[in-house]
Amino acid sequence: xxxxxxxxxxxxxxAIAGITLGIFMGVNQDFRLAHMHAHxxxxxxxxxxxxxxxxxxxxxxxxxxLPKLHYGLCLGGLLVFMTGLTxxxxxxxxxxxxxxxxxxxxxxxxxxxxxVIVFRTRVAPRTA
Length: 128
Prior knowledge:
Elements: H1 3-28, H2 34-57, H3 66-91, H4 97-120
């Protein structure tokens, strides 16, 4: 599967998860997972869709292992981060904070890999 397709498909699934969580919270008037909901939508839906857009517009950026590493770090980090935020939100126990911290650092590493990809990729100007 191409990198743009992988990121776009993941973005859609994460958006559905984020929207479903928001509806569940609203119906139950239980907003303990509001932080998770916000981060899931921003890091999941928005970031993954932007990543897919970049890879679609700059196909030469898809070369090598870095795009796969980027995807793995961002998705893995997001899942670990969401685990931590869920545990903290539902129990109030900060014992889950290491998951949130490790997950956020993995996401940061994914963004740094993406920065390397963006800065190493030469995008030719479009001609009319």
